[in-house]
Amino acid sequence: MSSKKRVSRKRDFIEVPKIQARDPRFMPLGPGALKGHRVDEIVARKAYSFLDDYRQDELNQLRAASKKEKDPTVREKLQKAVMSMESQLKAQKRKDRERELLEEHRKNEKELVKQGKKPFYLKKAEQKKKLLLDQYANMKKGQVDKAIERRRKKLAAKEKKALPMARRTAEDRS
User: Fold this and answer.
1) Same domain for 101 and 140?
2) Mind listing the pLDDT tens digit for each residue in 64-107?
């Protein structure tokens, strides 16, 4: 310490970190959130499950409002909002179902390990196959055919994008 500076009146004997309460709904999820702490998404989903009911009520209100609305521009905005909310709900259900399936697999593996079997961990590709099989198992025959066709087209388009563009020669230009 320099002897030239005056000593402050305020003395810091013990540094106590200030705890700041925060609402976990507005915190970012994922690695690195909260300086290394990861909010457990499953626990958060259970703790805030009542929000799903609110979302469903809001969706029903939006549907009713879009049916009553006379102005076409406002009606279109409401219908877009309804479609957006429906897709979010569908995505959340799909995510929950995926988590449920993987958790079920983990439980079965734990039981097998207790019986003396060697643990088997699913690779990402195996997880995707299992999820696809479950998804198709819940569909009817016509729906499965449509879904497979859509998937085939999607993969074909992806492969087409990956191919390099053909070079144009002088013959092509004429």
Assistant:
1) no
2) 999 999 999 999 999 999 999 999 999 999 888 888 888 898 89
Neighbours of 148 (CB within 10 A): 13
Same domain, yes or no: 70 and 135 = no
- Residue 56 near residue 64, CB atoms below 8 Å: no
Tell me how far apart the alpha carbons of residues 47 and 98 are, in angstroms, rounded to a whole number.
19
- Do 35 and 114 belong to one domain? yes
DSSP class per residue in 124-167: HHHHHHHHHHHHHHTS-HHHHHHHHHHHHHHHHHHHHHHSPPPP
Q: Which two tokens stand for residue 65?
A: 């409002």
Q: What residues contact 69, with CB distance under 8 A and at least 6 apart?
A: 75, 78
Q: How many CB atoms lie within 10 A of CB 81?
A: 16
Residues of the chain with pLDDT under 70: 1, 12-13, 27-39, 167-174
Domain that holds residue 75: 31-118
Token pair, residue 151, equals: 């998937």
